[in-house]
Design a protein that fits this description.
The protein is of the alpha/beta class. It has one domain: 5'-nuclease (Rossmann fold), CATH 3.40.50. The protein has ten helices and five strands, in the order E-H-H-E-H-H-E-H-H-E-H-E-H-H-H.
Amino acid sequence: MIFFDTDCISSFLWVNKENLLLGLELGELVIPREVFIELSNPSVRQLGKRVSTLLEDRHMQIMDIMTDTEASRLFYQMAYSPMDGYRPIGKGEAAVLALAIAHGGIVASNNLRDISPYVTRYALRHITTGYILAVANDKGLIDECEGNRIWDSMLKRRRKLPTTSFTDYLKSIYPRDQLAASFEG
């Protein structure tokens, strides 16, 4: 299961490229209810409609955090009452992390500042928008030129990406030969 945070899934929704997520056959695509609520904000109505289509077509599912579970305890701790040395994080990020921990899933988020301490603490697998695009490139779903167009479109939609171009991102990835295999298993 891959648990998407708002920042990662919206990068693809803003530029109408959610088909890449489907084409990669990443496994079960999940958004926590908290992320769905963020995407359903009236100020970004088009994102809510696009994610609703993914849900209706069963390409993605919503997962709720049930009370009195490990996930609910972790969610509360991360969002409201963090451990010493940690600071509270957003509800979407906390939900993604809590569910990924509880279900042995992968975290899909670009918000490294907030999630990195938890990814490290719980030894979580973590991917970003750039990483997903790099895997799409390695699997032949896009070429580098198309990747640069998508990257540029994401930047124009104010998506926070680590480099100014997809080409620069590809040059910074190490080791590239493990990208495509990273979703297996």
